[in-house]
Amino acid sequence: MASASPAQVSSDQAVTIEPSGVLSSSASISEFSHGGNIISNSHHGSSDHVYLMEDSSGSDGATPNLMRSPEEVAADAERLREQLKKSLSRGREPRTDIRDIPYDPSHEQKFPPRQFFVLTHAGKPVFTNRKIDETEGDDITNLIGVMHALISVFEDDQDKIRSIIAPPVRITFTIRPPLYYVCVTPFAEPESVARIYLEHLHLLILSVLTGSQLERILTRHANYDLRRLLSGTTTMLESYLDHLPRSFAILASSLSTLRLDSGLRLRVADALVPPPNMKTRLKDILYAIVFVDDKVVTIARPKKHTVHPADMHILLATIGSPAVKGSAASWLPICLPRFNSNGLLHAYASYLQLPSNSAASASQPAEAGEAPRENEEDAALTGGTHAPAVCLVIVSASGDFEVVRQWADVATNRLRDGETLRQLLKAAQRSTYSVDELGIPGLRHFFFKSRPNVQVTSPIFNGIEAHAHDERDQVELEDEWERLFNLYRVVWDAIHAKSGQECTLKLQYVRTEAVSVMGWITKSFEIYIALSPRLPKSAAIGAANAVVSWVKREEAKLFLRDAPVF
Asked: pTM score > 0.85 for this model?
């Protein structure tokens, strides 16, 4: 499916809806000053476009009243459905190439906030991250009604709507019956990236309501209000949606691992292996994982089970929710959709703290001094806003809480004994690195994915210009990061041909006035590097090779290899 441009819908037939509401099969898109492109999957494989133009004012120039009754909304939706059905029955328009349609790139600079909508197959709202005040309630209802009408029209013709492009935004649709997902993202963001966001939103909802539960509820009661069942998860959903555009690990379907000495990682892994006298009681255990913040330290698992990165991201979102984060012990029913989208598992999550030495320090003489200093160090490791958070998670297919808790206690004691937990916390504080450590001229940032390990690593971002972080405030740095990350998305999308390109690429190079970005993929790795735009292409290739060499030298620290099985 070829990508589309400001105002298209690809389907079997093509039509233009003019501002006056009159259907035409011959109007040119160049006649319009606004509009939106709708792209769909055609069951005949065609990629023709339907151009939509909405009238922003009444026939007399007055602003339309958005406070309408549900009956009026339903009537408008039905009229839209009938218009589109008639238009799709007409002859085809010649295809319009997106490259032939003028676009003002200045629209891309403000990065409008991403908006997400979830509705049922009956058109009932389920979730949105759009902030709604009292006066906007009916407007959202109208919007959901139009979305449902658009989806229904194409479904009636055994087709699927893919996206609407109306700069400065792109509206992307993902159909996962009995739920429909819609997101509004910046136009510069590739369609495939928006689709990844929607897929992860779908997986997160499935982690709360399994696929079989959704099917059963909405089959029996098509108009059931799912918002009641998801009411306690709104904060988790919104936090995850904020995290999605910032995570290259999610984009690349990988895990982000903590940079750690291999010997220390091995000691943490050994602590997760169940003792021989408990193995028969732990036959239903699927995974035992140690996280530090949003990075994986190690994973222990039975030989017959593998780990899907998407499930790990869902698990991280769950244990990072306000109701769980920081708690000493939580027992959570959870569905890991890539493991089994129709069944519930149970997860035991425990945020680990260093043992208290207050009693020991009180009994020690003041001149010894060692215990107070150790307590101060422990407070620095576990307190404060930037202190690393270590979480032990055990996922079980059974609901036997007591057996899982006993194993968790054994693993926790092992980590605390021998100073393993304290050393892990210290190492976590030193785990980040910058491009300065690599010493490669002109290098500003990079992402490296180890394809065999399905893991990514990257340095911290200090700005596009060398030493710019010393002079710029955090807001400016975040804007710079957003612009750079969007270039990473564009290059990643081009290399993998995820948005309808004719073929995949092995190397892609993009240069702007501020930065150049190169992506390179081989059988063993993917690398995306940001460089000074003053460097020639030959220097960019040399820098990429230098990064690859450095990663290979540091591979034992950067990636989790040979995770224990039991």
From this structure: no
